[in-house]
Amino acid sequence: MDPFKNMGDWKRNMDNFFGDSFWNEFEGVLKPPLPQVNLYQKEKEIVCIVNLPGVSNLKNIDIFVHHATLEIRGSIDMKEAEGQVVREEILHGNFERKIDLPFPVRREKVDASYQRGLLVIRLHRLMKNDDKKTRLEIVDMED
């Protein structure tokens, strides 16, 4: 038996009782942050793999690097999502995600590529102080 089967009905009842903004305080607890991220640290490099299914225009995804922070903004669209939701496990919509990195990185030595729904960002350790913010271009590996 699925204990979360009736969660949608329960949430709608709570929305009616407490108001729609009640759930904003629990956003990160009830559903994982969007998009999902895996971060791998090596001695002088960080590899960030971001789950971004169905992105058709990479120019709509913004990636910024600033010192020890990676920021990703954009939107995951699901054009086929029509009708009443019966089960919703794939997160979608607008997102903005700031990720604290384990060490400062070089903004001029960052590579980003996208293939089969995964955005792979390679960042290299900064050996000196650099406090400018840079927007990255993403290479579409499916062309």
From TrEMBL:
It comes from Sediminibacillus dalangtanensis. This is Hsp20 family protein. InterPro entries: A-crystallin/Hsp20_dom, HSP20-like_chaperone. CDD domains: ACD_sHsps-like. Pfam families: HSP20. Belongs to the small heat shock protein (HSP20) family. Residues 25-142 form the SHSP domain.
